[in-house]
Design a protein that fits this description.
eight-stranded antiparallel beta sheet, Cyclophilin, alpha+beta, globular, 8 strands, 5 helices, about 200 residues, about 20% helix
């Protein structure tokens, strides 16, 4: 005798109480301190307060931030991450072999959070996995948009504020849908599912 339920019977089974809860509500359901600690440690980062978990549909990306090198940029990025600013934003400009750019609320590279940041150029190099701030012609025009380098880009060194480095999951950045033309604008781009500070998980 089969224990499998028919379609009509499964329709009558009540949905879990958490099924229709918003993300913010499910977080309130709680987690044991032991489990929370285990999750944080599973990400193997130097400083959980200065590390980002960036979720894409392809997989999770870890970015370790450098507050000693770009303190104001790291502080602002953390504020935006904690506000949920980046959740759902697109990788609107992706150039194969160069970089993937995101962080524009308009999705076309013209928007930001409304707070410009003074440049914090440093001696770090733009190499594969570098996380750096996008900006306009004015050196002090960086806001919320950032890019992640696919390869070494020495011509950017000293011209853009480097604030961190991808330490895990770069293969998922490689998988992002690429743009076309010189601008690299992407048609139906991939999105940032969410960004979180590891210490907050």
């Amino acid at each position: 005798m089969s224990n499998l339920l028919g379609k009509t019977e499964t329709k009558n089974i009540a949905k879990p109480a958490t099924k229709n809860l918003e993300n913010k509500d499910t977080k309130k359901l709680g987690m044991s301190d032991t489990r929370a600690k285990k999750i944080k440690h599973s990400y193997n980062v130097k400083d959980a307060e200065n590390a980002i978990l960036l979720k894409t549909k392809y997989g999770d990306v870890l970015i370790e931030m450098w507050p000693d090198e770009a303190p104001n940029h790291v502080k602002r990025i953390k504020e935006l991450v904690r506000e949920g600013f980046y959740n759902g934003l697109k990788f609107h400009r992706v150039i194969d072999g160069f970089m993937a750019q995101a962080g524009c609320p308009r999705g076309d590279g013209t928007g930001g959070s409304g707070k410009k940041l003074k440049a914090e150029f440093n001696r770090n190099r733009h190499v594969r996995g570098t996380a750096s701030m996008a900006r306009a012609m004015n050196p002090d025009s960086a806001d919320s948009q950032f890019f992640i380098c696919y390869n070494d880009c020495p011509w950017l060194d000293g011209q853009y504020t480097i604030w961190g480095q991808v330490t895990s999951g770069m293969e998922f950045i490689d998988m992002l849908k690429k743009g076309s033309g010189q601008s690299g604008m992407v048609d139906e781009p991939d999105e940032i599912i969410s960004m979180s500070i590891i210490a907050d998980l």
